[in-house]
Amino acid sequence: MMNQLVDPPGSVTNTPDPLARALAPVPGSGHIFDVTHRLGTVDMDENQNLRIDGIARQIQDAGVDHLVHCEALESHPHWIARRTVIDVVRPIAWPAQLRLRRWCSGISPRWCNMRVRIDSDGGGLVETEGFWIHMNKETMSPSRVDDKFFDLLSTTTDERRLRWQQWLTAPLPEAQGTRFPLRRTDVDHFQHVTNTSYWHAVHEFSSEAGDLTRGPHRFVLEYNKPIRYGESLDLHTSRTADALTLWFAVEGEVRAIAQLRGAAAE
């Protein structure tokens, strides 16, 4: 799975207050991928809670496992995350047995919204949704999902004409940013910074916003254009009473934007 700037045709910008929109509940029927496993210590923070970048890894691994389960990995191996929403309703503490359920909450022929609910046996709960674009690796353009897989994903949603809408559009602040060095472990075989590596920076900067994460809270991360190894990445922040916004910029060009807000809906 990759990061790349892709704006699907038919983008819209007039949906009111999408950042406050509740995520779709678990459907009562249809195709839901359901898997359990133990939480490893590698994703713990200093309080023994599942870190935000660890949540992102859980989402990505569940996506690959889901493709394997559906026998769709060979036919649909390349997907781009355009946006990730993570609602930490109740923190997940280690040790924990995790249950992950993944299903489609909106679809079009070339992209879809995929929900992942993560429950822990200790009472933790994290709700997520990702806007994923199916890609042709050779042309680096959106590619149609085959009819069989499309029909399977469609069993959990009535939204068959999903359209892209940019949620985070605030311009880059004028104040100087903070240099954030990239490591070789942050990049994939496309030489792009991986999806989960963006969340390392989100975790680093959101640690100073404990008032926003004290209760239920929401993270949103939108990927605009790949960051490549060797580029000089600067992080810019803006803090208000109810939100922390973080811009990922290379030579003044915004490559991604993240935002943390308190009081995510359960």
Offer a few descriptive terms.
single chain, 266 residues, alpha+beta, Thiol Ester Dehydrase, Chain A, eleven-stranded antiparallel beta sheet, 11 strands, globular
Radius of gyration: 18 Å
Helix percent reads 10-25%
How does the major sheet shape up? 11 strands, antiparallel
CATH topology description of the largest domain: Thiol Ester Dehydrase, Chain A
CATH superfamily of the largest domain: Hotdog Thioesterase
Number of helices: 4
Q: What's the rounded overall pLDDT mean?
A: 92
Relative strand content: 25-35%
Shape: globular
End-to-end Cα distance = 29 Å
CATH class of the largest domain: Alpha Beta
If classified by CATH, what would the architecture of the largest domain be?
Roll
- Helix vs. strand class: alpha+beta
- As residue ranges, the low-confidence spans are 9-15
Question: What sequence of helices (H) and strands (E) makes up the elements?
Answer: EHEEEEEHEHHEEEE
Question: How many domain units?
Answer: 2
Question: Can you describe this structure?
Answer:
By secondary structure, the protein is α+β, with helices and mostly antiparallel strands. The protein folds into two domains: 18-156, Thiol Ester Dehydrase, Chain A, CATH 3.10.129.10; 178-262, Hotdog Thioesterase (Thiol Ester Dehydrase, Chain A), CATH 3.10.129. 15% of the residues lie in helices and 33% in strands. Strands 1, 2, 3, 4, 5, 6, 7, 8, 9, 10 and 11 form an eleven-stranded antiparallel sheet that branches. Residues 9-15 have low confidence and may be disordered.
